């Protein structure tokens, strides 16, 4: 492999890593899409989680060894529905899966952040379990996309066509947004309109990367 050019080395040293997190139906994708549209690389934790369990990957083999071959479909892909049903009913199995996946997920996320830093002054890491997984330690700053509980519940019910009780169970299975807000370096308040949220992101970029955005 040829050595990095001086330019790439300088970019990597100067690169700023912004972690973005939120909660279910908080509107995190609205914020992340602004950075994508501006051309900044985004490391998507959900996409990474799918990559590491693709056919042939060691994480998938470990899932089969731990939870049974029935977790693998005939085409060699992970049976997400079956695995999801298993861990949803059993907290111990969910914790076991999280522990199994953690090193693969962490390694891939760190690798993709490092790759982004070689080409861009800003890398965005979109990680739902930012604080729960202690990924904030790898960030220069963490931004939380916030909505209040009632608005979050209302949006989730409308998005997933579920009742109030089901929505509350889903929301309460996550770290409360109000707690994430307290830990955040930056808060993008998405309680209002999409346009207002987008403007907050543009304002952040204008302050931090006025020559890049």
Give a topology summary.
Elements (H helix, E strand, L loop, with lengths): L5 H9 L1 E6 L6 H10 L4 E3 H7 L6 H10 L12 H9 L2 H27 L4 E5 L14 E6 L2 H12 L3 H9 L4 H7 L2 E4 L4 H15 L5
Parallel strand pairs: 1-3, 1-4, 2-3, 4-5
Helix pairs in contact: 2-10, 7-8
Pathway: Cofactor biosynthesis; coenzyme A biosynthesis; CoA from (R)-pantothenate: step 5/5
Keywords: ATP-binding, Coenzyme A biosynthesis, Cytoplasm, Kinase, Nucleotide-binding, Transferase
EC number: 2.7.1.24
Decide which structural class fits the backbone.
Answer: alpha/beta
Distance between the termini: 32 Å
Helix and strand string, N-terminal first? HEHEHHHHEEHHHEH
Mean pLDDT: 91
Beta-strand fraction estimate: 5-15%
Q: Helicity, in percent?
A: 40-55%
CATH architecture: 3-Layer(aba) Sandwich
Strands of the largest sheet, in order across it? 2-3-1-4-5
């Amino acid at each position: 492999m040829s050595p990095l050019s001086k330019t790439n080395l300088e970019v990597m040293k100067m690169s700023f890593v912004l972690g973005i997190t939120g909660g279910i139906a908080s509107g995190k994708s609205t914020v992340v899409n602004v950075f994508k549209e501006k051309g900044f690389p985004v490391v998507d934790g959900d996409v990474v989680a799918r990559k590491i369990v693709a056919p042939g990957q060691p994480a998938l083999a470990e899932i089969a060894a731990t939870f049974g071959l029935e977790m693998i479909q005939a085409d060699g892909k992970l049976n997400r529905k079956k695995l999801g049903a298993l861990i949803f009913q059993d907290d111990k199995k969910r914790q076991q899966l999280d522990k199994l996946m953690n090193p693969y997920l962490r390694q891939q996320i760190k690798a993709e952040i490092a790759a982004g830093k070689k080409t861009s002054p800003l890398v965005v890491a979109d990680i739902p379990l930012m604080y729960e997984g202690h990924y904030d330690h790898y960030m220069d700053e963490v931004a939380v996309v916030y909505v209040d509980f009632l608005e979050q519940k209302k949006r989730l019910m409308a998005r997933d066509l579920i009742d109030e009780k089901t929505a509350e169970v889903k929301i309460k299975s996550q770290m409360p947004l109000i707690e994430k807000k307290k830990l955040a370096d930056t808060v993008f308040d998405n309680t209002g309109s999409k346009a207002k949220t987008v403007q907050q992101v543009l304002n952040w970029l204008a302050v931090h990367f006025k020559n890049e955005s």
